[in-house]
Amino acid sequence: QPTESGFTTDVLALYDWAKARSGNSSIFFWGHSLGTGWVRGRVTAGGEHPGGVQVDAVILESPYTNIREAAAHVPITKIYRHFLGFEYLILDSLALGNMFFRSDENVKVLTCPLLILHAEDDAVLPSDLGRKLFETARSAYKDKNKVKFITFPKMLGLGHDYISFNPELPALVK
Questions:
Q1: Share of the chain residues as helix, strand and coil, in percent rounded to the nearest 5
Q2: Phi/psi zone of residue 60: left (φ > 0), alpha (ψ -120 to 50 degrees), beta?
Q3: Which residue(s) pair with 147 in the sheet?
Q4: Quick one: which of 57, 6, 48, 5 has its CA closest to 28?
Q5: Which residues pair with 30 in a beta bridge?
Q6: Is 73 a catalytic residue?
Q7: Which of 27, 103, 107, 111 sits at 20 to 30 Å (Cα–Cα) from 133?
Q8: From the candidates 62, 104, 118, 160, which is the catalytic residue?
């Protein structure tokens, strides 16, 4: 089952693999959905293991603010949200399992460029969570130009999983 420490271990291993093969090429961390939860200051704030690694940019596709807010919005919890005890049984149990994934806190310590991508018709994680994460990051960054938020209109039908199919994506990322 996913854990924050497991995500961090995976990201550091991926970084080592990419760094060994990239030469002087730029390295970006790109996370999608639950995979956006690994963004942690120690992973992207410079130095080498275990203090951190330096990347050239972070891209978060369909992100959330923290796992508690995400769980309160994902479709599978919709039928349970109105029952007494939902917060205790579902949301608080995530904390008991050491699952916080506090992207809203972690983006405050990033210094590299940050790009947040979200589709307006995302039925899994509402684009409001991506917008809220962007606002949090933007307020923390000294250089506001390093933080960008791109939304994709509903009419494109990209939803939660298909932003990568947008033919304009390479130009937008560049």
A1: 50, 15, 40
A2: beta
A3: 114
A4: 57
A5: 59
A6: no
A7: 27
A8: 160
Tokens for 161?
């999983």
Domain residue ranges in the chain:
4-12+25-173
Query: From CA 129, how far away is CA 104, in angstroms rounded?
Result: 10
Query: Is pLDDT of 68 > 90?
Result: no
From the candidates 33, 62, 103, 127, give the one annotated as an active-site residue: 33
Of 3-7, 94-98, 115-119, highest mean pLDDT: 115-119
- Say yes or no to pLDDT of 136 above 70: yes
Domain 4-12+25-173 has CATH 3.40.50.1820: yes
One of 118, 122, 161, 164 is an active-site residue; which one? 122
Please tell me the distance from the alpha carbon of residue 22 to that of residue 1, in angstroms, as a whole number.
30
160 assigned to active site: yes
C-alpha triplet 174, 11, 18: angle, nearest 5°: 60
Q: CA-CA distances (angstroms) from residue 124 to 62, 63, 102?
A: 9, 10, 18
* Helix, coil or strand: residue 111: coil
Q: How many CB atoms lie within 10 A of CB 91?
A: 16
161 among known catalytic residues = no
